[in-house]
Description:
Number of domains: 3
Strand order of the largest sheet: 4-3-6-1-2-5
Order of helices and strands: HHHHHHHEEEEEHEEHEHEEHEHEH
CATH superfamily of the largest domain: Globins
Number of strands: 12
Number of helices: 13
Radius of gyration: 22 Å
CATH topology of the largest domain: Globin-like
Helix content: 40-55%
Amino acid sequence: MLNESVIKIVKSTAPIxxxxxxxxxxCFYKRLFEDYPQLLNVFNHTNQKTGEQPRSLAxxxxxxxxNIDKLENITAAVVQIAHxxxxxxxxxxxYPIVGEYLLKAxxxxxxxxxxxxxxxAWEQAYGVxxxxxxxxxxxxxEEAEKGEGWKGFAPFKVVRKEKESELxxxxxxxxxxxxxxxxxxxxxxxxxxxxxxxxxxxxxRQYSVSxxxxxxxxxxxxxxxxxxxxxxxxxxxxxxLLQISVPAGEFVLQExxxxxxxxLGGGVGVTPLMSMLETLVDQKYSGNMTFVQSSCxxxxxxxYDYVQELMDKHSFKSYNxxxxxxxxxxxxxxxxxxxxxxxxxxxxQPNAHYYVCGPKGFMEQVVGxxxxxxxxxxxxxxxxxxxxxxxxxxxxxxVL
Length: 400
């Protein structure tokens, strides 16, 4: 437990963290990788270069400072980050190193403002925060190793590659040892530890499982963009092995009992929704379902044929939006982006649950529209492809 003096000091630093947090975290990562370059085997190199990871960490540190006396307020964020940590192999021995370099970065960036008293308070606070993560992650590691699970990464053989659109290819993966797969929830993701030729460090990336849990294979559907996805598309062939983690993530299909379900996917963000849709179809779900996809155009529309096949065989509605296509495509096809008015007129239903996944702009538009219409927060389930979706504070206040 932290005493009142420490809590007061940490909370008093929140305004400066809001102002200079990203500067601190950029300094943190720079110094950390200079002295511990092996950690580049764990961290996402692309998110470092684009600044996404420092931004995400800065947001997390600020949230911890504001809620240091009531960390239960950020439990959901802790669980989300802990899933990612477990998936990429973060260990408890990493936390003291992170704490040391975070304090050094605070001192380097803030200078005299970071007095000994401030640094000592943050050292104590970091210990409490780190313990919260370690405890959650230890439980997750134990759960991952149960049943048919494993620790860290295990070899999977690529048994099939299938093109889903001009840019998206599905990879069907089976365990090399032929054993059954661990149980997982529709919507979860796996991490791939990619050993790319001529690269000094490994690259770890997360990809949603796009197939239903079936104990036979995992299917991931990868958009060709970035170093790792290009490696998968161009270099990885049927018969090759990939190092895979046990599925993780809290964006999963909940238990429903006949209420309406609406799925909205933007681009390759549709992949976890495909796992959910397949599962519900297999279960012969009794409630009405609506499946909405947004793509640039017909050629970049993943799972088009498969969704039409499912729709023809089962009772659910399907709508498609093409943001960069002008010619007409047919009934239930729309040119342009999903708009708030269309959502209000076509998707809002009493007691419905909404599952949303896609890029930031898509998420802000769709999730914002649902909140504005008064859909309860516990009926909106969403995931953003990236370190963390953070709607602007002003927007959150406007829609909540």
